[in-house]
Amino acid sequence: MTEPTTLTLGRAVNSGLRRAMEEDPKVLLMGEDIGSLGGVYRVTEGLKKDFGAHRVLDTPLGEAGIVGTAVGLALRGYRPVCEIQFDGFTFPAFNQITTQLAKMHNRTAGDVSVPVTIRIPYGGLIGSVEHHSESPEAYFAHTAGLRILTPSSPQDAYWMTQQAIACEDPVIVLEPKRRYWLKGEVDTGRPGTDPFSAQVLRPGEDATVVAWGPLVPVALAAAEAAAEDGRSVEVIDLRSLSPVDFDTLEDSVRRTGRMVVAHEAPTFGGLGGEIAARLTERAFYALEAPVLRVGAFHLPYPVAAVEDQYVPDLDRILEALDRSFAY
Amino acid sequence: MDAAPSLKAARGAAPRAPEPRTRLVRLLDREGALLEDADFSPWVADVDAEQLRGLYRSMALARRFDEEATNLQRQGQLVLWAPLRGQEAAQVGSVRALRPDDHVFPTYREHAVAIERGVAAAELLGVFRGHAAGGWKPSEHHMNVYSIVLGSQVPHATGYAMGVAMDRRAAEAEGREVEPTAVIAYFGDGTSTQGEVHEGMVFAASYDAPVVFFVQNNQWAISVPFSTQSRVPLAERAAGYGFEGVRVDGNDVLGVLAVTRWAMDRARRGEGPVLVEAETYRLGAHTTADDPTKYRDREDERRWAQLDPLVRLEAHLRTRHGTGDAFFEDVARAAQDYADEARATVLSLSPPRFEQFFDTVYAEPHPLVEEERAWYRDYVAGFADASPDGQDPPADGAPDDDGAPAAPGAPTAGLTVAADPDRPAEGTASGTEEDLA
């Protein structure tokens, strides 16, 4: 029996990768600077030293090449784990992800599987330059054939990494980069929960806030603040962005009657709209107010000096809760 | 005020493309006489008259099959067809250089390659009838399904080849013997512009992947001539990646066979990738939705028609090997039989059940797919004419029970589709083939 250890989210991903590589020799890591440097966020630190350059590939700089060759490796029986250095650099690989990786199983009527994992550090508030802070989840959630996970805690990061790699389908793991240094307990002896399920992190009675990845701690803080005003707010970590565990959300909203969906991506066309629509269809008569969305503006991700006004914060979630209670 | 200088004047004379540095390999001249090539003749030294007749037979069969598929499209039985006419030698010569375990990554025009890899006519034509996205099992034929978004398959081929090399290293480390294999990626001159082709080649060089990039330069990317696509023969780009590039007369089946054998052998032996450029010509349209008379002149077509790969091999067989009419008549009959069988097979195909497409989106269970499948079942069952076995009711404009598409001019969902004599039958033209370059 192992004792839980305290790890940062980034180290938890590292430990998850390590364990997956130990258990299956077909697991390979590939990406820019992931070997000797250990990745720009050092998430893969030490893995090349321990597993060798033939299992941790420092690739040439070409995202379509990384994902495209990963598709070919998967067709040959390997389980590649690609790291895309930053969210904004996913787009050169967009064709490979959406027209190839997502569809190969269906195109071959199930004859081949492409168990490729793509790790993408995503989200903002790291004080960087253009294309380093985006939240591209809606593009991929819209594409049938992909699964999308996003951990918000080290425990989830450790297990989701392994669960994504073990999955026969292509999985995109969106790692909330501004939470890489978030510390938490990781129990390597206790198997992770179903990665495609949403989890109620804080029970409540008056309203539900749904969040994922980087915004989960913000949602928890908002619930804490709301409690001071006498409002009992339930917080759900969505965890899987495709598929979405609507059952857990519906169960919650039927109890609380109010729901706010908070994400870093722009509101328009975002995943929050899908959640709001589905919950309205499923639980219209249980709702005391429309499902409200908190997201970023319909603007390109702004320059670092003003990014804190673009990314939703605790106050923006509280404002949405106020609006919900005003109905 | 002076008129602004024309763009042409501002740019000055177009810079001249450099002269090709890569020689063109040719083993059969245009009249079908054998040419000696110190580097490549030895690679086909074993090819006797019987094998040459086999190559001819494969090319003739592919051509007749291709004609029949074009006819089927014109008759409204296929939604689209991409003719290969003119490229038979490039395809047959190259695929005959492969071993069964070598893996193929094609575009959507590699019909002769697919037939040689054992893909059945029904599997192949099912794709163009709108029945299947892929059509066959890659695992059975060691050939991936056709790639429609061009260039995507090139990094796949490289990745697969990287896996082959890894398997080989693992086997060697364990002292196991393995049969060396290699990978071939097919694409055209138009596709060579795609960024993914470049990345695929960079990765192939970086990892010494056992992959052969086989470009059929058929001179046209739909309506854009090769002169717009490249300033140099594509084979010369290989030098920029640091591997071998070879130009071969793509209408010379013997030359293509020799060059591809050499390239695949090199790759199998671990000597890295090779880029082969087979210079050929697409005698027909890009696809059946295309009209080459709008962009190329008859004289060019006539000139290339004289370089027909079948005519050349026939001349060689007749003059050098005394192959007589009986053989060619026999081949023509066999090709006709194959075409007849393909036609009969196509006409016997029933549309797939829509519901089966829910089965293979994901390899593992997926709640949204299951939810929507259940909704669809209920929806279908709600129709008064729902059949008891759950078979989909025919939708407006969809093929009816005997598989025939709705006739032009037939009302579909309240709209009347105009019958245009210049267009293929309604339901046959595709508006989505812009990527079929």
From TrEMBL, chain A:
The keyword Oxidoreductase applies. Transmembrane segments: none annotated. SUPFAM superfamilies: Thiamin diphosphate-binding fold (THDP-binding) (SSF52518), TK C-terminal domain-like (SSF52922). InterPro entries: THDP-binding, Transketo_C/PFOR_II, Transketolase-like_Pyr-bd, Transketolase_C. Pfam families: Transket_pyr, Transketolase_C. Its cofactor is thiamine diphosphate. Keywords: Oxidoreductase, Thiamine pyrophosphate. Gene3D superfamilies: 3.40.50.920, 3.40.50.970. The keyword Oxidoreductase applies. One of its GO terms (molecular function) is magnesium ion binding. Residues 7-182 form the Transketolase-like pyrimidine-binding domain. This is 2-oxoisovalerate dehydrogenase.
UniProtKB/TrEMBL annotation, chain B:
Residues 56-340 form the Dehydrogenase E1 component domain. InterPro entries: Alpha-ketoacid_DH_E1_comp, DH_E1, PdhA/BkdA, THDP-binding. The keyword Oxidoreductase applies. Residues 384-437 are annotated as: Disordered. CDD domains: TPP_E1_PDC_ADC_BCADC (cd02000). Keywords: Oxidoreductase, Pyruvate, Thiamine pyrophosphate. Residues 384-397, 404-414 have a biased composition (Low complexity). The keyword Oxidoreductase applies. Its cofactor is thiamine diphosphate. This is Pyruvate dehydrogenase E1 component subunit alpha. It comes from Kocuria flava. The gene is pdhA.
